[in-house]
């Protein structure tokens, strides 16, 4: 269940980034994913 919840939370964050930055969102989504990856690895 936790994996599903994590996926929903991350997906919601990505949607918010898309809404906020529009065409510029790929850069911001990339930064967000890097932050999540670093948090998981440390």
What would you note in describing this structure?
The chain has 42 residues and is mainly α. It contains two helices and no strands. The chain has helices at residues 2-21, 25-41. It is flat and about 30 Å long. The protein starts with a helix and ends with a helix.
Stretches where pLDDT is under 50 for at least 5 consecutive residues are none
Number of helices: 2
Largest sheet: none
Query: Helices and strands, in N-to-C order?
Result: HH
Q: Please identify the structural class as seen in this structure.
A: mainly alpha
How much β-strand is present in the residues? under 5%
Distance between the termini: 22 Å
Helical content band: over 70%
List keywords for this structure.
42 residues
Which helices and strands appear, and what pairs or packs with what?
Blueprint lengths: L1 H20 L3 H17 L1
Helix pairs in contact: 1-2
Short characterization:
It is built from two helices and no strands.
């Amino acid at each position: 269940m936790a994996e599903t919840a994590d996926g929903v939370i991350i997906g919601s964050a990505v949607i918010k980034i898309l809404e906020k930055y529009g065409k510029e969102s790929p850069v911001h989504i990339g930064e967000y994913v890097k932050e999540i990856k670093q948090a998981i690895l440390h």
